[in-house]
Design goal:
The chain contains 2 helices and 7 strands; from the N terminus they run E-H-E-E-H-E-E-E-E. By secondary structure, the protein is an alpha+beta fold.
């Protein structure tokens, strides 16, 4: 199958998922292979609000926000593949499993969020994904997560 890989820039991302600053945690998604896989990119910067308190003098991106960034990447991947722009898609966590954190993520890092669909199909509501977050090829976090995708109405 010679399907062209897709990508989503910030403008398309905002047409697919409702998240906005300070909770939009993905800058772009590349290498989207239909509903199978995709790679989110998050440029981690010091001016993000969680760094004010996590932790003063030692800014570390909270692990839960890394998992949220994985989930946003998955929603953008599926939304791009299924042409969900401007269709009011909402996504809700149902489960997070096997979450592990291996490396601190700090301002200046480029977080790569590799997600793979393990269960889900077009028109289906419940999807399961596997995600791995890396910085410069080094694993920062991994998790499996299940989400309900409310595919909305125009």
């Amino acid at each position: 199958m010679s399907e062209q890989l897709l990508s989503a820039d910030i403008a398309l991302i905002q047409r697919i998922i409702p998240h906005r600053y300070p909770f939009l945690l993905v800058d772009k998604v590349v290498d989207i292979d239909g509903i199978k896989s995709g790679r989110g990119i998050k440029n981690v910067t010091m001016n993000e609000p969680h760094f004010q308190g996590h932790f003063p003098g030692k800014p570390i991106m909270p692990g839960v926000t890394i998992i949220e960034a994985m989930a946003q990447t998955a929603a953008i991947m599926v939304g791009t593949a299924l042409d969900m722009a401007d269709k009011n898609m909402l996504v809700y966590f149902m489960a997070i499993d096997k979450a592990k954190f291996r490396r601190m993520v700090v301002p200046g890092d480029v977080l790569e969020l590799n997600v793979t669909t393990t269960r889900g199909k077009p028109g289906g509501k419940v999807w399961k994904f596997s995600g791995v977050a890396t910085v410069e090829g080094e694993m920062a976090a991994e998790a499996e997560f299940t989400a309900m995708m409310d595919l909305g109405q125009e």
